[in-house]
Amino acid sequence: MARGDAPRDSYHLVGISFFILGLGTLLPWNFFITAIPYSQARLAGASNSTARILSTNHTGPEDAFNFNNWVTLLSQLPLLLFTFLNSFLYQCVPETVRILGSLLAILLLFALTAALVKVDMSPGPFFSITMASVCFINSFSAVLQGSLFGQLGTMPSTYSTPFLSGQGLAGIFAALAMLLSMASGVDAETSALGYFITPCVGILMSIMCYLSLPHLKFARYYLANKPSQAQAQELETKAELLQSDENGIPSSPQKVALTLDLDLEKEPESEPDEPQKPGKPSVFTVFQKIWLTALCLVLVFTVTLSVFPAITAMVTSSTSPGKWSQFFNPICCFLLFNIMDWLGRSLTSYFLWPDEDSRLLPLLVCLRFLFVPLFMLCHVPQRSRLPILFPQDAYFITFMLLFAVSNGYLVSLTMCLAPRQVLPHEREVAGALMTFFLALGLSCGASLSFLFKALL
């Protein structure tokens, strides 16, 4: 909440800065997964001058490296690890070092990825370098997002909204960049180079925005808060983020997990003359209250990451070769998923159904397991076991619409219901537990994707 003597945010520059910072934090992940066909073309033996961003999908037997699966798994494991580590890093590493150092590291690693477009190399070294980049970039992104959210804790709570909105648009931005690079009409190498330079520009803009904050009177006023004040404001912001009627819920798996720290340290004891505050809540007690909601969150992301993008990126159009076949996957898989996922999360701002006492929520979550066989039976030409039962493009588009909307809505719903099931002083622990189970669901889904792909 803004203080009465606070300066004004002239021209909303601070809000715009946090929007760009939010956009920059998730650009690397989204640009990697939307460029899966390009990477598969390189791994299939195509040179840098012949590999297209997306012309045909290199799947099945050609995808000997299981690139889809590994890029998903090595993106989520750092999330699970650094969700824990960030609670300790903030105590021993200065905030500026964590944020600026992470941004610079991400910029350098993505510049390396862009440079690889110009380098001819065999599939093995290309795969190793790319996977190392994915792992390190997502590790730095985890630290970056957790640190930026901690900084947001010192700001008025409304400033979390532009940050989360920026993150929510990162996936859509990456999909549009893919489409523009494909429609540009330039040669494949120039198209790929331009595509990978785009997130570098986004990260540079994020660095400039972060460096500008201390020079803006409004930001300087709040960022100069004392640690105790900042911690109290951060706790308030976290609690509000867990209530959809306040600021909504983040719009991507990574974003949700990293908007909540795992800092469960005991608060300072109150002075003898102050009213007695509730004691530190028991993690086990809180878990007993939210275990079903937490399990639902795990299952939602397990289903989502088990097929997206590992299986869905393999689906091709059943029509004859042409423009639609070329643009089918980036539009119907990546762009459609991000738009409908964002729409699903936005729905919880208007209604929450079913409520925390209903048994319909576990039923709806379990019904999403039907999407696994549905996508596996879509038009993936190169397969050795399962038949193709849904060859038409309309089937895949319909499945993706329902899949993305249900993912966004159920993720947002479970994150909204969890704090309603506990006492007010237990909400921080509930948020930390939900963060852990969310990261667990992401990792489980990424691991299962190997099995489902082997069954094709």
TrEMBL record:
<dbReference type="GO" id="GO:0015213">
    <property type="term" value="F:uridine transmembrane transporter activity"/>
</dbReference>
<feature type="transmembrane region" description="Helical">
    <location>
        <begin position="429"/>
        <end position="452"/>
    </location>
</feature>
<feature type="transmembrane region" description="Helical">
    <location>
        <begin position="162"/>
        <end position="186"/>
    </location>
</feature>
<feature type="transmembrane region" description="Helical">
    <location>
        <begin position="327"/>
        <end position="348"/>
    </location>
</feature>
<dbReference type="GO" id="GO:0032238">
    <property type="term" value="P:adenosine transport"/>
</dbReference>
<dbReference type="InterPro" id="IPR034764">
    <property type="entry name" value="ENT1/ENT2"/>
</dbReference>
<dbReference type="InterPro" id="IPR002259">
    <property type="entry name" value="Eqnu_transpt"/>
</dbReference>
<feature type="transmembrane region" description="Helical">
    <location>
        <begin position="290"/>
        <end position="315"/>
    </location>
</feature>
<dbReference type="Pfam" id="PF01733">
    <property type="entry name" value="Nucleoside_tran"/>
</dbReference>
<keyword id="KW-1133">Transmembrane helix</keyword>
<keyword id="KW-0472">Membrane</keyword>
<dbReference type="GO" id="GO:0016324">
    <property type="term" value="C:apical plasma membrane"/>
</dbReference>
<comment type="similarity">
    <text>Belongs to the SLC29A/ENT transporter (TC 2.A.57) family.</text>
</comment>
<dbReference type="GO" id="GO:0015854">
    <property type="term" value="P:guanine transport"/>
</dbReference>
<feature type="transmembrane region" description="Helical">
    <location>
        <begin position="394"/>
        <end position="417"/>
    </location>
</feature>
<dbReference type="GO" id="GO:0016323">
    <property type="term" value="C:basolateral plasma membrane"/>
</dbReference>
<keyword id="KW-0813">Transport</keyword>
<dbReference type="GO" id="GO:0035364">
    <property type="term" value="P:thymine transport"/>
</dbReference>
<keyword id="KW-0597">Phosphoprotein</keyword>
<dbReference type="InterPro" id="IPR036259">
    <property type="entry name" value="MFS_trans_sf"/>
</dbReference>
<dbReference type="GO" id="GO:0015853">
    <property type="term" value="P:adenine transport"/>
</dbReference>
<feature type="transmembrane region" description="Helical">
    <location>
        <begin position="97"/>
        <end position="117"/>
    </location>
</feature>
<feature type="transmembrane region" description="Helical">
    <location>
        <begin position="70"/>
        <end position="90"/>
    </location>
</feature>
<feature type="transmembrane region" description="Helical">
    <location>
        <begin position="12"/>
        <end position="33"/>
    </location>
</feature>
<keyword id="KW-1003">Cell membrane</keyword>
<protein>
    <recommendedName>
        <fullName>Equilibrative nucleoside transporter 2</fullName>
    </recommendedName>
</protein>
<comment type="function">
    <text>Bidirectional uniporter involved in the facilitative transport of nucleosides and nucleobases, and contributes to maintaining their cellular homeostasis. Functions as a Na(+)-independent, passive transporter. Involved in the transport of nucleosides such as inosine, adenosine, uridine, thymidine, cytidine and guanosine. Also able to transport purine nucleobases (hypoxanthine, adenine, guanine) and pyrimidine nucleobases (thymine, uracil). Involved in nucleoside transport at basolateral membrane of kidney cells, allowing liver absorption of nucleoside metabolites.</text>
</comment>
<keyword id="KW-0325">Glycoprotein</keyword>
<dbReference type="GO" id="GO:0035344">
    <property type="term" value="P:hypoxanthine transport"/>
</dbReference>
<keyword id="KW-0812">Transmembrane</keyword>
<feature type="transmembrane region" description="Helical">
    <location>
        <begin position="192"/>
        <end position="213"/>
    </location>
</feature>
<feature type="transmembrane region" description="Helical">
    <location>
        <begin position="129"/>
        <end position="150"/>
    </location>
</feature>
<feature type="transmembrane region" description="Helical">
    <location>
        <begin position="360"/>
        <end position="382"/>
    </location>
</feature>
